[in-house]
Amino acid sequence: MGAGKSTVGRTLSAASGMDFIDLDTRIQQKAGMSISRIFSYDGEDAFRRIESETVNEVIGRENTVIACGGGVVLDQSNIGALKRNATIVYLSAKPSILLRRVLNSPERRPLLQVFDPASAMDSLLKHRIPLYEAAADLTIDTSTLDIEGVVKKILAELKINESHDLPKHD
C-alpha cells in the first residue's frame, strides 16, 4: 500500500509493450462495488476470496503486467500461482514514506480507516514484509525514485536475468 504498484504497473506495461491488469480493479468489477464497500459489507475474508479467484483468472496470461494488491501475499496459494507463472516484483519503500503517500492519496484504504493509521501501517508491514521478501523474485526500493525511475530499474533488472522474456521492440 503506497508503493506505487498500479501506477508503476501501468507505466511498465506501456514501456514494455505488455498488457496491463490491475487486480484491484478486476476485483471491483467482479464484485460490482469498491474495495472499501466489499470490506464494509462483506468483510476482509470475502475480499480475500474474490482476490484469490481473480488471481487464478488472470495468472495464465502471457506478456502481461499484473499489479496485485498488497494483501495478495496473505494467501500462499496466490503466491504459488504467481511464482509458477510470473516474475514477482516487490516494490518496497521506507514505512514513513509509504504512510505519507497513502495519507496524501485521495483513495480510501480500508485497513487504515482506524484511529491510528501509523500504528495500523506499522502492524501491517511487520506482518507482511517477510511475506513480500519471501515471494519476491526482484525487489525495488521506491523510496527515492519517481515512477519512471522505478520502471527503468525494473526493466534493467529483468534484462539482466535471462530467465525473463520481454517482448522485443524495434
Give keywords:
170 residues, mainly alpha, Rossmann fold, two-stranded parallel ribbon, two-stranded parallel sheet, 4 strands, 9% strand, globular, disordered C terminus
Element order: H for helix, E for strand: HEHHHEHEHHEH
Strand order across the biggest sheet? 1-2
How many helices in DSSP terms? 8
Structural class: mainly alpha
Radius of gyration: 16 Å
User: Any idea what the shape is?
Assistant: globular
CATH class division = Alpha Beta
The CATH superfamily title: P-loop containing nucleotide triphosphate hydrolases
Look up the CATH topology: Rossmann fold
**Residue windows where pLDDT falls under 50 for at least 5 positions:** 166-170
Number of strands: 4
Question: If classified by CATH, what would the architecture be?
Answer: 3-Layer(aba) Sandwich
**Approximately what portion of the residues adopt beta-strand conformation?**
5-15%
Largest sheet: 2 strands, parallel
Distance between the termini: 35 Å
Helix content: 55-70%
- Number of separate domains: 1
Could you please describe the fold and organization of this structure?
This protein has 170 residues and is mostly helical. The chain has a single domain (5-154), classed as Rossmann fold. It is 56% helix and 9% strand. A two-stranded parallel ribbon has the order 1-2. The longest helix is centred in the last third of the chain and has 19 residues, at 117-135. It starts with a helix and ends in a 10-residue tail after the last helix. Mean pLDDT is 84; it is low at 166-170.
